[in-house]
Amino acid sequence: MKSFDYAAPTSLAEATALLARANGTARILAGGTDLLVQLREHLREADLVVDAKRIPELMELSYKPDQGLRLGASVPCYRIYEDAAISAAYPALADAARIVGGWQIQSRASVGGNLCNSSPAGDTIAPLIALQARCVIVGPDGSREVPAEGFCTAPGKNVLRPGEILARILFPPRARTSGSAYERFIPRNEMDIAVVGAGSWVQLNAAGDTIEQARVGLVAIAPTPRFAAEASQFLEGKPATDETFAQAGELAKQVASPIDDMRGTAEFRRHLVGVLTRRTLAKAVKRARG
Predict the structure, then answer these.
(1) Structure pTM?
(2) CATH topology of domain 178-288
(3) Residue 190 above 90 pLDDT?
């Protein structure tokens, strides 16, 4: 591992100043579960590592039913799924947080770090897309917001500019008749990277038999996580039935441009897109109905 300097700022202003001075040679340590491996294997380089765990804003976890969820970028995964109110309001997020590595990893790994790592197979990114999350980015020139589906730009790359840091992720309030779910397929437990992952969110009418709104997010099916816009739009106004879910699964395949690799073939991945979209929609509807 190449030697690097280490800094542990206690404010966003201090962190962004350090990042700006480093001019692209710094890396942010949110949990370190990806970064430290990448530095050791020379997959990434850094002259400065900035520890984000001591910045209060990045460790904020606040949920109010009428305002939604504010998730600091460095909040460890276990705090999400161990919070009963958050798990009930945003179950797809809790689904994903529970499977990011083992429980030791989950005490350090964060949703924000998973997003900034920008892997095409990042488990927590599909629920962020499905739940219509907004990413708040802070830098020397102030703050800006980016929708979750627009954050990743290529494998391992994203919209963050030199000097910028992901501060928090915002989720809208949960509608009373809504539900969500995330599932992934892995070939075996020892290979903890999704072959395909799907996150679905639905809002039903008062009777619980018709889908009023829906969103489907997918990972490990293209160079970046994808929002299945056509499948999501198709679901609006449709009956909440297995036939509808299957049709949406077929439409979701249209955003997939997968590759063949050691985890699966492109053909198999397209098949899984349909299967997992159908399953997560069914589970989301079941949760929406209580």
Answers:
(1) 0.93
(2) Enolase-like; domain 1 (3.30.390)
(3) no
